[in-house]
Amino acid sequence: MTDSLTIDANATRWSRGDRTGLPLLVLLHGYGSDENDLFGLVPSLPSGIAVASVAAPLTPPWPAPGRSWYPIEGDESRHPDAVTDAGRALLRWLDDAAADAPSVALLGFSQGAAVSLQAMRLDAARFGAIVALSGYASPGDLPGDDALRTSRPRVFWGRGTHDDVIPPVLIDHTAQWLPDHSELTGRVYQGLTHSVSEEELRDVHVFVEKWRDDATA
Fold this sequence. Notes:
By secondary structure, the chain is an alpha/beta fold. The protein has helices at 80-97, 111-122, 145-151, 168-181, 198-216; strands at residues 13-14, 24-28, 50-54, 104-109, 129-133, 154-160, 183-189.
């Protein structure tokens, strides 16, 4: 694995032109999607923030559409090192895109959730909050994991009872790992598949609003 992944800054969708002094929420889409997908959540998010929806750096194998953060097929399927590479690429993108933001939060779906949590593990001080929807914490250890038990970054983890996309072993790992390494707000939505519901969006709104208020206090 390498640090050669690059996020195309020109593909990023921004919710507003003037972002001066505003907390920044970064959206990370799932496998086979792109920067346009989660941008549809902007009307459901609190006001008073800037939102950036980024395009993942990889292209899935044909005929899969869209983009991906890391492979989910073959020998490298969901490999923790590949998730780490994607997290580092995100941190490099943030060096330029979020240089003036008073606080940064991440909201990722599926693959994007895994990358969001991995970026938190790589540089927890960079983020005010993490929203992980229908995703998981990658197995394996990273150098900053022990420090998370003390700093306990704020994480919202939402998933559905009928989500059959994320392997159960990864859900079980995440259910044990997150309470030990974060200030966790966990929600399980009855009947929800690998998707986002209106009920979940309401919970996310409250969580993001709290981050915004703390960032601007």
